[in-house]
Structure to design on (149 residues):
């Protein structure tokens, strides 16, 4: 398995863990971040900008989750940027940066602030979960590196 494949597999692992956290906890915790809503809003905004009517909410939700998994996979794949020498550190940095961005950027992007910024608990969970995703991606890279080499 080459470095690119290893990086993407690691990023996908981190992205899947992040999505499972988001989708699981939101079902029983009212303060949980709602990255799915941000994704749905972004997609709907794109449809309207293109002069189209956005799909129904169920379809938008499915599309948002798929887009989240793909984009987060690519982002977390950066853990292999230096050949995996610092995969855990890169994963932690990438995760913390993504979490902070998920708290700060939705408002200025016109997506609303409530999904990731409505309470201190929501903000903390948002940053923590993206951090977990980054750490999982980094750890997955290290595991693949050990198993394959």
């Amino acid at each position: 398995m080459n470095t690119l494949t290893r990086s993407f597999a690691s990023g996908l692992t981190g992205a899947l863990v992040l999505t499972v956290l988001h989708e699981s906890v939101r079902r029983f915790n009212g303060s949980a971040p709602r990255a799915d809503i941000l994704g749905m809003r972004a997609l709907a905004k794109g449809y309207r900008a293109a002069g189209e009517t956005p799909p129904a909410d169920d379809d938008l939700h499915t599309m948002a989750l798929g887009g989240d998994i793909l984009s987060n996979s690519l982002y977390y794949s950066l853990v292999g940027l230096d050949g995996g020498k610092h995969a855990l550190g890169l994963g932690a940095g990438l995760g913390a940066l993504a979490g902070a961005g998920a708290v700060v950027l939705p408002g200025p992007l016109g997506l609303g602030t409530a999904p990731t910024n409505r309470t201190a608990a929501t903000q903390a969970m948002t940053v923590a979960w993206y951090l977990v995703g980054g750490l999982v991606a980094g750890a997955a890279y290290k595991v693949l590196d050990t198993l394959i080499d």
